[in-house]
Design a protein that fits this description.
Elements lengths: L1 H17 L11 H8 L10 H16 L11 H5 L27 E4 L2 E5 L1 H12 L7 H21 L1 E2 L5 E2 L3 E2 L4 H13 L4 H16 L15 H10 L6 H17 L7 H14 L5 H16 L10 H12 L6 H17 L12 H14 L4 H17 L5 H9 L3 H8 L6 H4 L31 H27 L1
Parallel strand pairs: 2-5
Antiparallel strand pairs: 1-2, 3-4
């Protein structure tokens, strides 16, 4: 990063020194800003977000400023607009990111008009915001970048209007695809602000309305995907009116099934089940609601195989059983046990975890605790049996370990689990938060001491990362001193 900052400094100084006597030199040149943005990797690192704000701000201001309409008039710039170079995006965040992986990061020549494709710059910044995972304000800032993309698109479509009213061709092009929208919708899903449920619905509505228009009338707004629907449904859990949230989610599942350009996906119904579990948590109707959705899926999947309930669907049904406040405990537990047994039966052996996940074991254990009240000894025995199965399949998550510890005596827990680091094979297939030690933690005093043989933790990698950060900081101070001397 220090090298990029230094190159920016050299470019700025050289541009100012040339005093516009050298053709093709521009302050805040979009090529320099674009590739500077592409060097950013993580907003958690010191200074990266500030650099992104500065560089994207300069890039955006440059490409929408009518004063820069002659950017491509010099021979040097026209030669640079041949499109020979291509920069590929390699960030991985969502399934749809690949849609823009081959977006050109250099100017492309279309008929007699040269433009620089700035799509990758804006999309890179949105991706970096998305990795902040629900931090306050991140969703709003990502949405602002998306709005800036549309500002560039409007100028690309309608041209640049200068102070005299003359219309000139845009110097920038941009291609807004559904993955940009889905990244923002994913951030609304992760946000804790109730207002972001409304923001997600409004953004999705724009995509749905776009599907009702001709391509030329869409103003760059892409069509929704099943991921757009999934993220929006999950964001609805923040709505104050739970019944309205479920009603809106059901409307979106119907929209998916009735819309030709949308592929049906079970993940949208899984999002609906997850929403129902949050909104109806601890209520009697949760059980009936979950079973009605399951019945609909089983019937619909006869003609639409892509809507066949999967392991995640079944795990969510078990979760609904566990958290429904019912008097008919035996019936609820019987339903959950039947579904769980079907999941287990699909596994290749007692030691595989291809179909069943750690969440399925945790939800089943929770269901036993809430609905098996008559025989405490039998309850403890079944929980111990489920814990043993989870460990055998490498599915001992932090939640499972904690639940087991809370329902056993200290001596029973020690005799079953031991003390110290968990066996690696117990946690190898965990997809939710995992514990590395029997106390439920992933770190602690003296726990990361060096071992003989192959390391089973990330301690060495973390130490190496710290050493690199110290070196970067030291080099940064040296570069800053050098710049001051210049």
């Amino acid at each position: 990063m220090d090298r990029i900052l230094f190159l920016n400094y050299i470019h700025d100084e050289f541009t100012q020194a040339s005093n516009k006597h050298i053709p093709g030199l521009f302050t805040n040149d979009p090529y320099v800003m674009l590739h500077s943005i592409k060097s950013l990797r993580n907003f958690h690192l010191e200074g990266e977000k500030e650099n992104a704000d500065e560089w994207l701000g300069k890039l955006h201001a440059f490409v929408i400023d009518p004063e820069n309409k002659d950017y491509f008039t010099s021979e040097e710039k026209q030669m640079g607009a041949s499109g020979d170079e291509e920069v590929k995006n390699t960030d991985e965040f969502s399934d749809d990111d690949s849609l823009d992986d081959n977006s050109s990061a250099v100017a492309q020549k279309s008929s007699s008009v040269s433009r620089i494709d700035v799509t990758s710059a804006y999309l890179s910044v949105i991706r970096l915001f998305a990795r902040l995972r629900g931090e306050k304000g991140a969703a709003a800032e990502a949405r602002n970048v998306l709005d800036q993309m549309h500002a560039v698109h409007d100028i690309m479509t309608n041209g640049l209007k200068d102070s005299s009213g003359e219309i000139a061709n845009s110097i920038a092009s941009i291609d807004i695809k559904s993955n940009a929208y889905n990244l923002v919708l994913g951030m609304y899903r992760d946000s804790k602000l109730p207002a972001d449920a409304t923001n997600a619905s409004e953004l999705l509505s724009k995509m749905i309305d776009s599907g009702k228009k001709e391509v030329k009338e869409r103003n760059g707004i892409p069509l929704p995907t099943h991921q757009s629907l999934e993220y929006t449904i999950l964001s609805l859990s923040k709505m104050p009116d739970g019944d309205a949230a479920i009603k809106e989610a059901e409307r979106l599942t119907t929209f998916m099934e009735e819309t030709d350009y949308l592929d049906n996906s079970i993940t949208v119904y899984n999002a609906l089940l997850s929403l129902c579990t949050k909104v109806l948590y601890g209520k009697q109707e949760l059980y009936d609601k979950a079973l009605s959705i399951l019945a609909k899926l089983k019937e619909t999947s006869n003609t639409h195989l892509e809507l066949k309930p999967n392991a995640e669907t079944m795990s969510l049904i078990i979760k609904a059983c566990a958290h429904s406040k019912r008097e008919d405990h035996e019936a609820v537990l019987g339903t959950a046990t039947k579904i769980f047994s079907e999941l287990v039966a699909q596994e290749e052996s007692d030691e595989t975890a291809i179909v069943i996940k750690d969440s399925s074991y945790f939800n089943m254990m929770t269901c036993l605790l809430n609905h098996m009240a008559e025989d405490e000894d039998m309850k403890k025995e079944r929980i111990e049996d489920l814990f043993s199965q989870a460990c055998q399949r490498g599915l001992c998550s932090s939640a499972i370990l904690t639940l087991f510890r809370n329902n056993m005596t200290e001596e029973e827990f020690r005799l079953t689990v031991g003390k110290g680091r968990l066996v690696d094979s117990w946690i190898v297939n965990v997809t939710s938060p995992k514990a590395l030690y029997t106390d439920g933690s992933s770190r602690g005093a003296g726990k990361n001491a060096r071992r003989h043989g192959k390391s089973t933790s990330d301690w060495a990698k973390k130490q190496q990362k710290k050493e690199i950060q110290r070196k970067v900081h030291k080099d940064s101070k040296r570069v800053k001193k050098m710049i001051k001397k210049m």
